Amino acid sequence: MEKPIIAITLGDVAGIGPEIVVKSLFHPKVYEVCRPVVIGNQDVLKNTLFLYDKTTKVNVIKKPWQGEYQRGTIDLIDMQNIDVSKLKMCTVQAICGRAAYDYIEKAIKLALAGEVDAIATAPINKKSLHAAQMDYIGHTEILAAITKTEDPMTMLEVRGIRIFSLSRHVSLRQACDLITQERVFDYIIRCSETLKKLGVTDGTLAVAGLNPHSGENGLLGDEETKYIGPAIKEAQARGYQVVGPIGADSVFYKTLQGHYNAVLSLYHDQGHIAAKTLDFERTVSITNGLPFLRTSVDHGTAFDIAGRGIATEVGMTESILVAAKYAPLFKKQS
Question: Domains along the chain?
Answer without folding.
Answer: 1-152+289-334 (3.40.718.10), 153-285 (3.40.718.10)
